[in-house]
Input
Amino acid sequence: MARVVHPARHYLNDGYGISSWLLTRDHKRIALLYLAAVTFFFFVGGAMAVMIRLELATPVGDLVTDETYNKLFTMHGVMMVFFFLIPVIPAVLGNFLVPIMIGAKDLAFPKINLLSWYIYIIGGLFTLYALIAGGVDTGWTFYTPFSTVASTTNVVPTALGIFITGFSSILTGLNFIVTIHRMRAPGMTWFRMPLFLWSTYATSLINVLGTPVIAITVLLVAAERVFHFGFFDPRVGGDPVLFQHLFWFYSHPAVYIMVLPAMGVISELVAAGCRKPVFGYSFVAFASLAIAVLGFLVWGHHMFVAGESVYSALIFSILSFLVAIPSAVKVFNWTATMYKGSVSWETPMLYAYGFIGLFTIGGLTGLFLAAIAVDVHVTDTYFVIAHFHYIMVGGTIMGYLGGLHYWWPKISGRLYNEGLAKLSAGIIFVGFNLTFFPQFVLGYLGMPRRYHAYPPEFQVLNVLSSAGASILGVGYLIPMVYLMWSLRYGRVAGSNPWGAVGLEWTTSSPPPTENFAETPVVTWDPYEYPAADLEGHVA
Amino acid sequence: MWTGTPLFPESASTIATRVDLLYFFLLAVSIFFSLLIAGSIVFFAVKYQRRRRDAIGEQIHGSMILEIAWTGIPFLITMVIFVWGASVYFAMARPPDETLNIYVVGKQWMWKFQHLDGQREINELHVPVGRAVKLITTSEDVIHDFFVPAFRMKADVIPGRYVSIWFQPTKPGRYHLFCAEYCGTRHSGMIGEVVVMEPSEYQAWLSGGAPEGSLASTGAKLFADLACNTCHRPDAQGRGPVLEGLFGKTVRLQSGETVTVDEAYVRESILTPSAKITAGFQPIMPTFQGLVTEEQLLALIEYVKSLHGLPQVESR
Amino acid sequence: MSEHIVPTRVYYTIFGILMLCTYLTVQIAVFDLGPLNTIAALVIAVLKATLVVLFFMHVKYSTRLTWAVVLSSVFWLGIMLALTLSDYLTRSWRTFG
Amino acid sequence: MPEAVHHHHPALAHHFDDLAQQKEAATLGMWVFLATEVLFFGGLFLVYSVYRAWYAGAFAVASHELDVTLGTINTAVLITSSLTMALAVHAAQLGQRRLVILFLVATMALGAVFLGIKGVEYYHKFVEHHVPGPSFAFEPHEYARHAQIFFSLYFIMTGLHALHMVIGLGIMTWMLWWAWRGTITAEYYSPIEVSGLYWHFVDIVWIFLFPLLYLIGRHA
Ligand code: HEA
Ligand code: HEA
Ligand code: CUA
Ligand SMILES: [Cu+2]
Output
């Protein structure tokens, strides 16, 4: 095959050896450090999902004990949420792309960026310690007073793990905010920024304003266990429901931390996949900010049956409907972008289709949950489980995989095997729906979540779900293989394999350590096609 | 393979059909939009498929009219759903005046039911068809959740508080009762059944056995055993306030505030008398924290309730 | 630019006011003003905090962006307090009628 | 200012264009961090508000156990340290190295005094069995349960505040070293300025803690 020359010096060969990685301050290398770490946690969390689904293949609890089962879903939730889904897109793709997309040499605080990774790893080690030392069984939500007085498992190390990791999110968010405000290249105005940056910025706002609250909350739980404080203990007059307010004040906005970056990725994929500006650019941009702000006003919808007052339930319900609107606006705009586009069927675009469809289903079922009367029936059932896996797995992971495939040539300088990529995208799509669609039905039937054993009439649907999960698992393993393979054997990508626009495609693949040979001067709008003219734009 | 696999839950309470109706509406909205989006994606992807390697799309930037439409229409739809959902929810939250009251205590990992006539049950609850039933729930340890799918009814059972929920069964039968809030190791084993019976059968079941007498009479006995009656006397001669006719009234406190006497207030008065001092009295009542169980508290509350001077509104 | 150099006189004045406020808040606490006690204490605390932010922390002389960061942190704190208290304050409201 | 001066400044990091951009980034970064801190402490203030509203009586009684005199002295100490901090920044802006050192030392000394007094107060509480936990005791007995919540709040709020002070002392030591070494100049003083922001913030937290914890129901 025709070998295109690799750029002679780039960030990957700029220094070898362990310390050139572990002490690096290059945002691109740090992104790869994160890539390794989050992938590890994904597979740990995924292995637990496999165990959960195996156990639920039969109605009786026969594979693992109830105690173990409770630990499995708790650790699954904790790993997947705090150590995989929250960091995944910001810390991997965001770290790699934010400086490049605005034409900067690095993030504003490279040392703090590296520090964030170490903090993340330390938090992860605490949690892994909790896992190895026997696990924790409170559910990822740590509801009091169970977590503070009843549970006898490793709540404190897990809580500390989450506390510590929180600072990694905060610092990453802080770094992005400052970078986007202060480091844009000449001519890169706010409305010339790619939409991925808008959504990263919105995500960072949530990171900075929400994460400290979960930090203090889990700290209170740990303190209550260690020092016998009484904030959430009804025996001394504490209110266990107060914990839920604090927890969800962060954890609802956190679901937007988990989906907004994926939305940003989708905007990029759709634009490049259609070679067309994103329809209604400014609406999509402001929708991200609207989601970030409104997302802070709805947390009480997790507490409709938890003993919150009837009137505040009404407030939280109506606000939850409002926060759905900007998401709807985004979905419509992406779909409209395809109209009269030059629509590609390459792998990244397949994932984008998957995201839009599955996110729509997940989001629409969110409306069921926001309608209080229906939520009373389906809360704490598999309906909720299906809702959020549709958004988080069907949405965010699809977005992430799409982004990873789209930028892989930039990151690695190589092309992966398109046939295998399409195949695995298909397998993931089918496996995903088979896993989680039956759970909607189960949920409305009334099967409670966090159940180790269940009435026999629910078995058929559960078996379908378990079968789907095994297909899904295979689907997730294939990309691991061909992406790794491509690092060595893949065709050399060239600087712009997709014919896309955006500053990242104007520099070589892989980019040099300082990202650009010369600081670019931006004189064009985002997504201004055709790409061919682009070279001429660079000053 | 599908025999015995239900795809839709039974509806066995007055509220269930109302919830289902809203559910179907939501389903219709969702199917419409899912098909709209998925259909458009497939259609555009096929119709505008990239045919030349260097083809670009038509450079369309947006349309104000469309933006307004797809902001406004979903907004209106969601407001319909909100109002609908809220009104059904209000019906759930507001029990009718005439209810059959039953006390529920959740603990790791069982349900205890206490009928006013004195019957006690574990993990099984008998109720008559066609009557509104109000459950006054509390927990001995952690948060549990009382969930009967066939009734579309669910509420967290919270330690330290009394949460009331109500339902009116419409069909005799046996229905799943689940604990729906994670509560520890045997959470999935904290299940039971609600048995809805014809009124006549229910009467027969009731008369089947109430060895200990009514709940109020248990409370009366406790009231004497714990020496409450040394201070609380019907003749206003005791050192504590008269409790007759107190329940449901409004009491003025020393701090100048007023409170309505409900289950929570009586409970607090017994466990933390100092928290709210009744105007005109000294804070001399001792705390009974640790001396009475949740179930004994319920008996005492029921006794205080039974001291109503007026004809009882919340009849059994 | 925030190169603005504040004359030390300003710092000393602010310091004086802060000390005075501290004295005041302790004195006021002794009188029984009913619920006004808490309000008075909070008003004084907010006043003191504002002075520190504006002068010691130079926000008065800073960019709009700094103002925005300060105000949004306070605003978000307000969201947290207001919506949570909306639950606590209405819990005892009856649904009857 | 001419470009060239900036470019050769040893403190300019490679990825910034000039010192001005670097300074703006540092200042904004600290402000964003402080926004985070507002919500961190905000969670505690929320818990406080709820229980203060519920158990006003017990909180008033429990608050009486705190030593207002020590609390007031500490407030004054901290405000003074804020003044010296502001003056340190001022001196840094003017490049008065010796004054910077002097005011930093003063700030640190005042911070240490604050922590010392706090330690004395903690010791008293420990002796009086007012530390929540199995050995907690409180008279009058009927307030004991809710007083325990008050003291839990007292310890966690002042404890986290004190932790911030300790971190602040650490930062100040570092700044002292930089000032000593002569890194801090009229051109490059943003490290001092940014550390000052942090110090003032910690002061503000105390400005709220003091009335909320020490001054409730004093009149009774
Ligand atoms: C990334 C994660 C993510 C995202 C983005 C969302 C988005 C939404 N979620 Fe979800 N949610 C979770 C993750 C997420 N959720 C998790 C993890 C839980 C459970 C936690 C636990 O208990 O363990 C949960 C639970 C949860 C509950 C509580 C359920 C319960 O426990 O009882 C509720 C209730 O209102 C809810 C609502 C919503 C709504 C209204 C949206 C909206 O933002 C959705 C908006 C999107 C759309 C509406 C789709 C696009 C729209 C169209 C294509 C057009 C048509 C639109 C209209 C007609 C409006 N979610
Ligand atoms: C944020 C992200 C996230 C992700 C990605 C997932 C991914 C998956 N989840 Fe998870 N899930 C949660 C977040 C997530 N989940 C949360 C927050 C909860 C609630 C927890 C709680 O209640 O506290 C939950 C709960 C939850 C439950 C409910 C448990 C219960 O309530 O009892 C179930 C049940 O089916 C489930 C299944 C799955 C499956 C099949 C996947 C699949 O997508 C996973 C696919 C991945 C793989 C299969 C890995 C591939 C690797 C291999 C195949 C190698 C495996 C190796 C060995 C087996 C040795 N999840
Ligand atoms: Cu009780 Cu779950
Ligand atoms: Cu939510």
Notes: Chain D has a mean pLDDT of 90. The pocket of heme-A (ligand 2) is lined by residues A 43, 46-47, 49-50, 52-53, 73-74, 76-77, 80-81, 85, 139-141, 385, 389, 392-393, 397, 435, 449-451, 465, 469, 472-473, 476-477 (CB under 6 Å). Residues 144-181 of chain D form the longest helix (38 residues). The helical segments of chain D are 3-7, 19-54, 56-63, 68-93, 97-127, 144-181, 190-214.
